[in-house]
Input
Amino acid sequence: MTVEAPTGPAALGQSRRGRWGAGSIAPVVVILVLLLVAVGIRQPDFYDPPALLAFLKRAAPLIILAAGQYFVIVAGDFDLSVGSLVTAEVVIAARLIDGDPGATWPVVALVLGFGLLVGLVNGLVTTLLLVPSFITTLGMYLILVGAVYTWTGGSPRGALSEEFRMLGRRGIEGVPWLGEIPYAVLILLVLAGLAILAMRSDFGKVLLAVGDNPRAARLAGGRVAGVRTIAFVVSGGCAAVAAILLGGFGGVSFQVGAGLEFTAITAVVLGGVVLGGGRGSVVGAMLGALTLQTLLTLLNLLGVAGALASAVQGLIILAAVAIGGLRART
Amino acid sequence: MHDVGKSFYGVSVLSNVDIDVYPGEVHAVVGENGAGKSTLMKIASGVHQPDSGSLRIAGEPVVLHNPREAQAAGVGIIHQEFNLLPERTVAENVFLGREPTRRGLVDRRAMRARTAELLASVGAETVRPTDRVGQLGVAQQQVVEIVKALSLDARILIMDEPTAALADHEVELLYALVRRLQARGIGILYVSHRLAEVFDLSSRITVLKDGRRVVTVDTADATPEALVRHMVGRELASYYPPKAGAPGAALVTLAGAGNGRLRPIDLELRSGEVLGVGGLQGSGRSALARALFGVESFTAGQMTLDGKPVRPRSPRQAVRAGIAYVTEDRKGEGLALSQSVLDNALLASRAATPRWFGGGARTTSVRALLAAVEVHAAGVDQEVRYLSGGNQQKVVLARWLAMAPRVLLFDEPTRGIDVGAKAAIHELIRDLADKGAAVLMISSELPELLGMSDRIVVMRDGALAGELPGDASEEAVLSLATGTPHEVPA
Amino acid sequence: MTTLTARRPRIDSTNGVWLALGMTLIIGGILVATDGGSLFGQNSTVSLLQRAAGLGIVAVGQTFAILAGSLDLSVAYVISLTSLIAAETMAGSDGRVLPAILAVVAVSGAIGLVNGLLITKLRINAFIATLGVGLLIKGYLEQGYAGPAGSVPVSFQHLGYDRVGPVPVAFLLFIGVAAVAWVVINRSRFGHHLIATGGDLDVARLSGVRTDWVLIRTHVICSLCAGIAGLYLASRLGAGAPRVGAEGGYDLESIAAVVLGGTVLAGGKGGVAGTVGGVLLLAVIDGIFNQLAVDPFFKQVVRGVVIVAAVAIYAMRLRRKVVRKAAA
Output
């Protein structure tokens, strides 16, 4: 005999939970709109297309990282290696290009390939050797940081070519009304579109099922290890793209990727995605990243320098997650 | 317990049941699956509260709000699934939450000594207080559970199918243990399917059926035949779809197929036929289905599908070969509960045969399947967790129908499902067979097994105990399942 | 009961790290000796133990959190914060050492309490809860401090610089903290409940363990350990440093040390002895590389590999055990 789960009251709670609870994007949309309004009041010309595009350009790397992290988190894993991967990629690119424009495109290809490779290793170690992904990617983080320092002897060498930096800095100029369309925004739009398509595809649906209940996914004929591994590869690839953009408008330093793994995870969670997997959308994750970036912009405008910004960031995350958690319970 | 009644969500699962246990008595409770045994035990141990009726212990009326209060009142329960920490020692498990202390620290010596005493008092000296529970065998873990209950000064011990997970020689030890407990004046409510055990151990037997107490008899006055009649005799025969006329050709054959849990098995699954698999829990029924589906594959012998040798090594291979498996653990491994009805119904199609394009047509046909199996939900986008068990099972069925499998393995297809949905699922199963699929159906419910099957095999201890025709009697199945030599009435 | 398994001495995750440590010492010692140096020379040993102390104390606290099935990502910022509190309260005066220590205990305990409450009462995932609290502290630190602040009196610097023979006082402090932690985990009721909570929350609850209360206390202890590490670093640096925790990577490295020591990340299995082994192993590897004058950054790579490999080996042993059990 089995006793069935209550159907009545839970069914009533369902609609509200569906819209506001864990996995939903409604809360992050509300927060984002409020922040955007606040930014608009403080800086009325924020909504001029060029300014808006410039803002999106700055936000693009984090949004892309969050999208990649989403794939890993929704399958029930973590990727703590993305920050160090971004650093490693930028440093590698600078050293290999060393100011030579001719080396740009081969190095871009290499950077992308390296990102995918790191993701593949993370995925295989996690799924085949059964190492918890937290540890796998933590180990990868240590390895990448150490390897980059070792390889460069302690300080970044070389320089990125102007062609390489163009991807993060410049755009298609002279577009009527919009002014310049940054390449970063174009890349973001393409990747966001691909991410949404991927999550609507069979792969995406199976990925969600794997994060929700790996045993059920396996018994339905799914390749659980394969799907989880692909998620890590996606994350690694996204980190590589983010590195290319950040290298463009940031510059070469060991700090370029520092802490980005936590920022990306924070963004994903802020977007309503549940740690542990199975709930949340990639749109939510990307909106979470956009929200975080908007928050930083607003704090900047309000004169809260980078310093207190992280405190406010921490507070907002705790509040958002706590409210989500309490709603899910009632 | 007097006049105890309980209903869940409007479905009455227990009504006006009286049952009593005297000190030093073993009172057996028998009945089919769904007769209300588990609910009764859960009420007695404080997990559920009765809607009506009352509980008294030593004459005092008690209200048990939770398992803690039941423990305090002297009621201990040994579940089929143990509540133990495998990484901790026996002593640590026994005294978890109540560790004796001396000068602020846990008095490990006292804890060990007391555990050793308790172990000795039940004649289980081979278990050491310092053993790690995870290293012990199932029988020994059960001893630890019992000792844990005794350490709470339990006066009443409830044992729920205590032999289900035990090997034959371990059962003997359990018997000895039960008799020792009895001698100490502990009252035991002993829930079991196995009549042989019941007759060996108990002084009185209560038969439950459909949530009611049929009879309480002194064991000395009872016969197995009479008990079985009480257990199975039912007033209104449920409706089952008509059975197959002549079965088709063999689709799957097993020759000496076995693995760690299954002794070599020879078996045929025939096209158009529902093959029922009977037997007790732990008899290897599920292991057989799971081996056929590649979850825990066969390691020996031959398996053929359509005359060609196959041996699925993963569910994926099995699915792609045209085999489907409806698990008995719907929530644990059947459904992705946070996903929508539609996504769950599409899961096998998407997971086993992923496509980048053309998903739309598949979605349309799965929507049609969901409608055809009559899933009742707020919509196909509703999370599947909010559906009733019957509707959840229909979602699983739709998932497999979408794959057009030729071999379907059902493990307890109607467990936890209300009567109406049950009949619908039975019809779907029969319909699949009529369309030429080979169906294997595991069921602990005898009426279902007999009502649905064209042919029945009964398993015992990982092997086939025998084969019966579809119109066999419940007694015949029970006697094969329990291994009690039993005259089949002509 | 004939199925009783033969009891072999188990080499598993909890004592495997000591085996690895021994082998590393031997192999490393030989390598360094052939290189013409000595791994066990006075100077190298002192600096090796000195380095182990700070991380070790934090890792002991982290062991509590991980054993209970939780984790604490805020420790790095707690270390920075408490180093500042200590140095600023002392302000170079001998008489204010005690109030400073009390202040550190109070603040770090309070932070742990907040972590615990967020996790148990608001049901926030420990990862997010402690990350959020860490960000809050980080913001406060960055807002208030541009660089080192406060100063500790010379008397307090004994903690950072004195030693008994070749053994720094700080290392003795680490061993002391670890010893107390060992007693608490293995001998107190709280320790038993802690491991039960991490092993199986439901079993613990059904057995009458108040799991929320256990988790709250666990996080207080974890934060207190970070506070002690903060005191040590203040003594070592002579002042409070707003970035000492984050730059030292104490959050992730402490988790790494615990896991290296064989404590299962999911909780319920492991112990403080393993953590001590893990911390020492990391320190010894560092020491060997220093002596061999290998690129200092390369040791980071080795750390990463060692940690992942260790956990992979533990996981593989576990899997083999499961397979053996299933076949039996």
